[in-house]
Amino acid sequence: MRNLKSREIHLKSRPVGMPTPANFELAEVAVPEPKDGEVLVRNIWMSVDPYMRGRMMDRESYVPPFQIGQPLQGGAIGQVVAAGKGATFGVGDYLNHMLGWREYAVVGQAAMPQKVDPKLAPVQSFLGALGMPGLTAYVGLFKIGAFKDGETVFVSAASGAVGAVVCQLAKAHGAYVVGSAGSDEKCDWLVKEAKIDKAINYKKEKDLNAAVGAAFPKGIDVYFENVGGAHLEAAINHMRIHGRIAVCGMIEQYNNTTPAPGPANFIMVVPKSLRIEGFIVSNHFNELAKFHAEMGKLVAAGKMKWRESVVDGIENAPQAFLGLFKGDNFGKALVKVGPDKAV
User: Fold this and answer.
1) How far, in Å, CA of 261 to CA of 41, rounded?
2) Burial class of residue 275, CB neighbours in 10 A (0-12, 13-18, 19+)
3) How many Å apart are CA 89 and CA 87, to the nearest integer?
4) Bridge partners of residue 28, in order along the sequence
5) What is the pTM of this model?
6) What count of other Cβ atoms lies within 10 Å of the Cβ of residue 173?
7) Per residue in 212-252, pLDDT tens?
8) What is the set of domains in the chain, with CATH numbers?
9) How far apart are CA 39 and CA 90, in angstroms?
10) Would the pLDDT of 291 be above 60?
């Protein structure tokens, strides 16, 4: 591994409002040898996710901010090509870890490596439906949303990596499910492939509140929140008594430069006795075994489908990330960093 070089994406400057390509830079660095307990991983796939926008701001949060002039971080799948003494993993193993945005990564325990089996599913699926986005869907629906079989469920950003899994988990438990998405293609997929009951193309609706009301004549038991803004206001209007709102994210507000006004109807949480709870998936890793058991049954039965949007090349990772905020991705947004070839 001597003289090995790796290309990686650094944060060049902190974005104000919507990020631009100028906030990122491509760098080439020397790859160090793995130390005791570490492994060197050649990344094959990496994930881009909306939460990464928050880490580009210099503020206190549940994860430290990205640093100027340093590589960004995020979920990645790669193959071990060298191992230090006493390493838990061996050459040839496929690992899911948190040192994406680079072609090669020296991975220790801080990067939360987990071995994945390429025989179970395509390895990139462990960055999506079978990975953290899928676990987010499972926790948000069943634990935070306290969903019960046969209830009514509304999901915003329903064709995304998290939303699509929420929809199908709910359907597998007898729910009436409506999702919103930003194109006819995405809505068609939700109805025909994910088998939800109705899909709303919010970009074509002049009155989103009326569309949600028409889709839920008996009201909403659980709203899975990924968007915020008008979606949240419409959901509150049509929630049933004792309804639950699981707040996963609010992508509509991630690039705001001034605080967005709260829902004008927020007072309705009182007479409707609503429960609204935000959550971070990393606080719920104890649910992994239940999640994998649930997903294994659905995948085997052909009742769990997902889509992926793939951009090739580490140099195009910023483009893939920026596309999240324009709705360019259909399903899980991924970057193909390197070839699949085995060691």
Assistant:
1) 45
2) middle
3) 5
4) 7
5) 0.90
6) 17
7) 999 999 999 999 999 999 999 999 999 999 999 999 999 98
8) 5-128+307-336 (3.90.180.10), 132-300 (3.40.50.720)
9) 8
10) yes
Q: Which tokens hold the place of 168?
A: 């199908």
Phi-psi group of 219: left, alpha or beta (phi > 0 → left; psi -120 to 50 → alpha; rest → beta): left
| 3-state class (DSSP) for residue 326 | helix
DSSP assignment letter at 57 = S
Q: Within its chain, how far is the Cα of 312 from the centroid?
A: 19
Which residues, in sequence order, are CB contacts of 288 under 8 Å at separation 6+?
A: 135
Measured CA to CA in angstroms, residue 320 lies from 40, 48, 187, 279, 309 at distances of 25, 7, 22, 25, 9
DSSP annotation of 108 reads -
Tokens of 38: 């570490």
Rg (Cα) of the chain, in Å, rounded?
Answer: 21
Mean residue pLDDT of the chain comes to 95
In this structure, how many other beta carbons lie within 10 angstroms of the beta carbon of residue 48?
A: 26
Instruction: Please provide residue 78's backbone torsions phi and psi, each rounded to the nearest 5 degrees.
Output: -150, 180
CA distance 43 to 99: 9
Question: Of 28, 249, 213, 271, whose CA–CA distance to 136 is shortest?
Answer: 249
Position 139, amino acid: V
Whole-number Cα distances in Å, 133 to 50, 126, 165, 259, 309:
11, 9, 8, 27, 15
Structure tokens at 233: 């206001």
Residue 104 near residue 40 (C-beta atoms within 8 A): yes
Alpha-helical (H) ranges within 216-302 are 230-238, 288-300
Q: How far apart are CA 243 and CA 316, in angstroms?
A: 42
